[in-house]
Specification:
alpha+beta; Flavocytochrome B2, Chain A, domain 1; 4 strands; cell membrane; transmembrane helix; steroid-binding
């Protein structure tokens, strides 16, 4: 072996083994440095991917203005979206509905009309579905079934009824009808209270007996004749 080392390398056996040992030590030092820098990074990435999502939080009945707070701009809050007044937690699909996602403009809103029309126009980002055709309503129904099966319902959208001059709303109509009914009831009660007083002040019905007495007088006069 010593002769072969000397013949093939031109080095003495002691020098050859010294160079071999130094090379192995250098390799382990370099691999250890690169391994320690990349190892924890991969471990951290795996821990982020495996981290479970927090459970959905029920928000109850909130207004559309309050719903805007859950559009994904605050990573500490859940990502919510509404269809036909029903609010769903879509946090698990943040890549689609979160900031930068293809459907990010639907987050934090009741965009029923936009979903029915598959529209990304600003004027269609509303819960008003009046005037939609049968095919659009069917598409909206499909979206609702999808959300019901995939996401958790966490609340409902509270409808705000605004009464403005020159406009009529259901709430205003009901209030007017209730006021009229109350006035009619008060008028009836007032009439009932006045009726007994009117009876007390009315003239007596005793004069009705006078014709009876007159009839008796006529009979007596006939007998006398």
């Amino acid at each position: 072996l010593k002769e072969a080392i000397t013949a093939y390398t031109g080095l003495s056996p002691a020098t050859f083994f010294t160079v071999l040992a130094v090379s192995l030590a250098f390799y382990y030092v370099v691999s250890g440095l690169f391994g320690s820098s990349s190892g924890p990074t991969h471990h951290q990435e795996r821990s982020v991917e495996v981290e479970p999502l927090p459970p959905p939080v029920q928000v109850g009945e909130i207004t559309e203005e309050e719903l805007k707070q859950y559009d994904g701009s605050d990573p500490k809050k859940p990502l919510l979206m509404a269809i036909k007044g029903q609010i769903y937690d879509v946090t698990q699909s943040r890549m689609f509905y979160g900031p930068g996602g293809p459907y990010a403009l639907f987050a934090g809103k009741d965009a029923s009309r936009a979903l029915a029309k598959m529209s990304f126009e600003e004027q269609d980002l509303t819960s008003d579905i009046s005037g939609l055709g049968p095919f659009e309503l069917e598409a909206l129904q499909d979206w609702e079934y999808k959300f019901m099966g995939k996401y958790t319902k966490v609340g409902t959208v509270k409808k705000e009824v605004l009464v403005t001059d020159g406009s009529s709303t259901a709430e205003a109509t009901e209030a007017a009808e209730a006021a009229k009914a109350a006035e009619a009831t008060e008028a009836a009660e007032a009439t009932n209270r006045e009726a007994p007083n009117a009876g007390d002040n009315a003239p007596s019905e005793k004069p009705v007996g006078e014709p009876v007495e007159t009839a008796k007088t006529d009979d007596a006069e006939k007998k006398h004749k």
